[in-house]
Design brief:
With 354 residues, this protein is α/β, with parallel strands linked by helices. 42% of the residues lie in helices and 16% in strands. The protein has helices at residues 13-25, 65-75, 89-94, 97-119, 123-128, 160-179, 201-210, 230-243, 260-274, 304-310, 318-331, 333-340; strands at residues 4-8, 30-35, 55-59, 79-82, 130-136, 183-188, 190-192, 215-218, 224-229, 249-252, 257-259, 286-289.
Length: 354
């Protein structure tokens, strides 16, 4: 069956990787990408698909009811994959308004229009229709020294970003139980890989290092995250769409718990190998900076459910994934340069308490 994917936020980091994955994985799939092209949406991430007849792009806002309704009616998607979100914790600290608008109201509008579409489908079409909502492990709050987030972990968001994503998760659940919309939700750990907007940890460290700038590490660098290579995440989303049970949530993790300081040292070691300095190590540039407000101590994902029920496991190890990622950024400096020539300059954000 030819599947038509309506992807929101497909010019962002994970969305762009997912579109590349689907176009390569499903020879007959068609994709319509709706993206507002805010600071984190980069059409250059999908430039290689410009001439592909199976890929179509539309610039627009998921908060626009008429636009979303018109696109859904015209395209008649089989699957809606909802990536579109404001996603940076630091930015949510400085300005939470856009997070509330996009992540909560935008998700509500998308659910509302998807329900209209679903109700007009034939019985067979309804059987194939899916709405997959991509969320985060940050909705669960912070862990202590042991334990992992499971699908049964109570929500306890600690930042405006995670609170807005928790709200959107609850809306998606409600549209399943109240209206019968066939939804699926994934909660993933920290993604890394190609096309990541350069305010995130890995690209910041890579390019500050190469420019001889300080390498900022929050607090003492002991905060722990579970690192998931973005293509492994894309495979997980695809597997959930194909085999997941509607109404269910699936945690997706990389089985790679590392402190922020370990991650920075890993990147420095790879840069020492790939682009050695005349003397010393890039690790000499590490600088500890004031921690951000509400910085969760530890995240760790129990991805046992998706492994048992859907036979998914990450293919990349921490070592192999980071090697690929650092090499990609070194090979694609022009992609980064175009972003840095705009408004963003790798500045520190997220310091203000409100």
């Amino acid at each position: 069956m030819k599947i038509k994917y309506f992807v929101t936020g497909g010019a962002g980091f994970i969305g762009a990787n997912f579109i590349h994955y689907i176009i390569g994985e499903e020879p007959d799939a068609r994709v319509l990408n709706l993206d507002k092209l805010t600071y984190a949406g980069n059409p250059d991430s999908l430039k290689s698909l410009d001439s592909n007849p199976r890929y179509h792009f539309r610039q627009g806002d998921i908060c626009d009811p008429k636009l979303v309704e018109d696109l859904l009616v015209e395209f008649q998607p089989t699957v809606i994959v909802h990536f579109a979100a404001e996603s940076h914790v630091d930015r949510s600290i400085d300005g939470p308004d856009e997070f509330i608008n996009t992540n909560i109201l935008g998700t509500y509008n998308l659910l509302k229009q998807a329900r209209k579409l679903h109700e007009g489908l034939s019985k067979d079409q309804k059987g194939n229709f899916r709405f997959l909502h991509v969320s985060t492990d940050e909705v669960f709050g912070s862990l202590g020294d042991s334990g992992c987030f499971s699908e049964e972990t109570p929500y306890a968001p600690n930042s405006p970003y995670s609170a807005s994503k928790a709200s959107s998760d609850h809306l998606v659940r409600a549209w399943f139980h109240t209206y019968g919309l066939p939804v699926l939700t994934t909660n993933c750990s920290n993604n890394y890989g190609p096309y990541q907007f350069p305010e995130k940890l890995i690209p910041v460290i890579v390019f500050n290092a190469l420019d001889g700038k300080p390498l900022p590490v929050y607090g003492d660098g002991s905060n722990i995250r579970d690192w998931l290579y973005v293509e492994d995440h894309c495979r997980a989303i695809h597997r959930v769409i194909q085999k997941g049970e509607t109404g269910e949530t699936y945690n997706v993790g990389g089985h790679n718990e590392k402190t922020n300081l370990e991650v920075v040292h890993t990147i420095c070691g790879l840069l020492d190998e790939f682009r050695p300095k005349p003397s010393g190590s890039y690790a000499d540039q590490i600088t500890f900076v004031k921690d951000r407000p509400g910085h969760d101590k530890r995240y760790a994902i129990d991805a046992g459910k998706i492994g048992r029920e859907l036979d998914w496991r990450p293919l990349e190890s921490f070592e192999s994934g980071f090697r690929k990622t650092v090499q990609w950024y070194l090979d694609n400096t022009e992609w980064v340069k175009k972003i840095l020539d705009g408004d963003y300059r790798l500045e520190r954000i997220g310091l203000e308490k409100r």
